Amino acid sequence: MSDFLALVANPALLSVIAMCVLCLFRCNVLIALFASALLAGVLSGSAVQQTIQTFVNGMSSKLEIALSYILLGFLAAAITQSNIITLSIYKLTQMFQKGAIKNSALICLAIAAVSCFSQNLIPVHIAFIPILIPPLLSVFNLLKIDRRAIACALTFGLKAPYITLPLGYGLFFHQTIIEEMNKYGFAISLSDTAGVLWIGGLAMLLGLLIAVVGFYSRPRIYREQVIVEQQECVENMRLGLADISVLVGAVVAFIVQLTTNSMPLGAFSGIVIMILGGGIKWRAMDSLVDSGLKLMGFIAFVMLLAAGFASVLESSQAITQLVEVGSMLVGGKLGGAVLMILLGLFITMGIGSSFGTIPIIAIFYCPLCTQLGFSVEATILLIGIAAAIGDAGSPASDSTIGPTSGLNADGKHDHIWDTCVPTFLAFNVPLLLAGVVGALLLG
């Protein structure tokens, strides 16, 4: 009983619960993170000013990732505003409209593939959705495709690539796990994370197939249809020198990132190529930076504040007690694995960012996994899946907001019941099972 009371009165645990509750009640995640950090500091006996200083110092550990996000947002804005995206999406739209692909499951899988490219190959994130999806709504209606299947396909493409592959946004995800685990004595590299986290990607693929071929494969009629206006005809559009420089810049960014493992350098190299080739107009640079900040700036700040929050938790001296008590209450590896995955689900559902969740949970999970006897591989899997699991299904996540922005263009798609609930069931259940079973098998 005394152990349980010590657990529920722990400042670190109380601050995490406060953060999740604030987020679930629609408090802005930046405010929730800062308020929860202050709560953790005060409950642990630190002065408010000292807590703020610790918070700010902790933010500095994620400056490189924040810079990467901002530069990548700039790069994505330039790619999105070029003719490359418009022409590619137009061709894909024409292919669907002309009936080249009539099977609803194949259409969903094709959309999932295009969505995957937005995370690694051409890192535009969710910016492609408002361009691709609205013109296709009339096609979906004609074929009676359940839009919940399309939502699952889009969310799969927005999540599975960064979980599985250390490329593009995946490089951020994997590097963040590596940096946080290195703090606690785990000497790991990209090959270690990539060699384990494919399990999460495989679980999501299984969830996608079940959703597309099973749960949401039946025809669904959308009554009182409002046909969305088609894009302006681009049949005669041709790629110019500026567009080619954008394509070359994207390729250069990809290659530099692979060879140097530096996303800031890769993104900056791509931007320089685009500027020299005219893909980014000098006079339009400010507007592109603004667009990039709108696209990725918020996530960058979430990462910074999450690092500050984790720093306050670490300095509160409450983590050691929480891990010791928690390891006694969970009842071994099975209970520990389930608890860690569910806690990750709770936190990520609240803040809506897998990337921002990693610094918060790693401070608990690394020592807890060591205490419970989990191997390095199992620890990587638990942290990776616990961070990723709540992104699908969170009302505040880009992985759900993005699909809804396109599918609800005619007002016939509900954000909660047609996007969040289906994606939650399709992906979080398989990820939970994969995380628990995989961790136990890995030792």
Gyration radius, in Å: 22 Å
Shape: globular
Count of distinct structural domains:
1
The assigned structural class equals mainly alpha
- End-to-end separation in angstroms reads 30 Å
Main sheet? Answer: none
Low-confidence stretches: 226-231
Tell me the total number of β-strands.
0
Task: Tell me the helix content.
Answer: over 70%
The oligomerization state is single chain
Output the helix-strand order. Answer: HHHHHHHHHHHHHHHHHHHHH
| Average residue pLDDT | 79
Strand content: under 5%
Q: How many helices?
A: 21
Summarize the structure.
The protein has 443 residues and is mainly α.
Strands, helices and their partners?
Layout: H1 2-8, H2 11-24, H3 29-43, H4 48-59, H5 63-80, H6 83-97, H7 104-117, H8 129-132, H9 137-142, H10 147-164, H11 169-182, H12 190-215, H13 241-260, H14 263-277, H15 285-315, H16 319-329, H17 333-351, H18 354-372, H19 376-388, H20 398-407, H21 415-442
Would you mind describing this structure in some detail?
It is a single chain. The protein has 443 residues and is mostly helical. It has one domain (1-442). The protein is built from 21 helices and no strands. It has helices at residues 2-8, 11-24, 29-43, 48-59, 63-80, 83-97, 104-117, 129-132, 137-142, 147-164, 169-182, 190-215, 241-260, 263-277, 285-315, 319-329, 333-351, 354-372, 376-388, 398-407, 415-442. Helix 13 runs antiparallel to helix 14 (263-277).
